[in-house]
Amino acid sequence: MIKKQSKAEISEEMQRIIERAQELIDATADEVDDKVKSARNALIRGLDNARNESGRFYERAVDRASEVDEYIRDRPYYAMAGVFITGLFMGWLMSRR
Asked: Sorted alphabetically, which keywords does the UniProt record give (predicted)?
């Protein structure tokens, strides 16, 4: 059965994965085999990409949240009307069988 995870749990799990991958990179620093070196370099590139993407995702999420906050503060009645209409629509959908 698939367990639902919160965003915080997923974020913590991703951090643990990144830390373990970094430990693997550090542990194989003395290896001289070409295959190990190429795998290590690929892992380093993948970790850098993951860190960059997570940083960009976080920045976009913060930007969007501030835009939504600003919109709601500027137009509170639009936001209340939207929530009200959404509630009516969902109530109508759930009442239909």
From this structure: Membrane, Transmembrane, Transmembrane helix
